[in-house]
Design a protein that fits this description.
The complex is a heterodimer.
Chain A: E1 4-7, E2 10-13, E3 19-25, E4 31-38, E5 42-49, E6 56-57, E7 64-67, E8 73-78, E9 87-94, E10 102-103, E11 107-111
Parallel strand pairs in A: 2-11
Antiparallel strand pairs in A: 1-3, 3-8, 4-5, 4-9, 5-6, 7-8, 9-10, 9-11
Chain B: E1 5-7, E2 10-14, E3 19-24, E4 31-37, E5 43-50, E6 55-58, E7 61-66, E8 71-76, E9 85-92, E10 98-100, E11 104-109
Parallel strand pairs in B: 2-11
Antiparallel strand pairs in B: 1-3, 3-8, 4-5, 4-9, 6-7, 7-8, 9-10, 9-11
């Protein structure tokens, strides 16, 4: 099993550009999450999904959109990137409920 | 807002010593979890303790939970260089999500 994978690993965007981060899991998990990690801030939840076709807002959802069209994939979109979105983004999944989450390796995004 | 607050923010000890990290939280929880993050990597789940449990062990890890004080501690015994990482507590309060603290950076010196 590959576990949780994230694409891409690194990306540099200019302000105003858009992009999509892809998260994939092969563990048949129902729950998936997108977090951002900033120095001194810990992890903050952006959006999450409790099953295919469902999404919900987390703590810091503004400027991001998500989709869960397939159970194994959870996409995070930035419609118009801003320097404040410079961060490391982590995807995670769990079988049932937010316990024992499995994390991907992260995507380091820089917005200039 | 961050629910869990770890203390200390950074800890440096000699290999073989025990390391203790603390986590405080503000509201009632269903469970509390500890995760480890090696530099440049994703988080790895270490242990989960439910609100009706007071202590739990897993290998060299010992977690305690005091719901009356809204605090938890993680003890790593006989530390090794490979234990160098950041450690995060996360609380499950409901609403299908975890809230993570800011983490403790642990350095094990050879």
């Amino acid at each position: 099993n590959a576990g949780v994978t994230q694409t891409p690993k690194f990306r540099v965007l200019k302000t105003g550009q858009s992009m999509t981060l892809l998260c994939a899991q092969d563990m048949n998990h129902e729950y998936m999450y997108w977090y951002r990690q900033d120095p001194g801030m810990g992890l903050r939840l952006i959006h999450y999904s409790v099953g295919e076709g469902t999404t919900a807002k987390g703590e810091v959802p503004d400027g991001y959109n998500v989709s869960r069209l397939k159970k194994q994939n959870f996409l995070l979109g930035l419609e118009s990137a801003a320097p404040s979105q410079t961060s490391v983004y982590f995807c995670a999944s769990s079988y049932l409920g937010p316990n024992e989450q499995y994390f991907g390796p992260g995507t380091r995004l820089t917005v200039t | 807002s961050q629910q869990g607050e770890e203390d200390p923010q950074a800890l440096s000890i000699q290999e073989g010593e025990n390391a203790t990290m603390n986590c405080s939280y503000k509201t009632s929880i269903n469970n509390l979890q500890w995760y480890r993050q090696n530099s440049g990597r994703g988080l790895v789940h270490l242990i989960l303790i439910r609100s009706n449990e007071r202590e739990k062990h897993s290998g060299r890890l010992r977690v305690t939970l005091d719901t009356s004080k809204k605090s938890s501690s993680l003890l790593i015994t006989a530390s090794r260089a490979a234990d160098t990482a950041s450690y995060f507590c996360a609380t499950f309060q409901g609403a299908q999500k975890l809230v993570f603290g800011q983490g403790t950076r642990l350095t094990i010196n050879p």
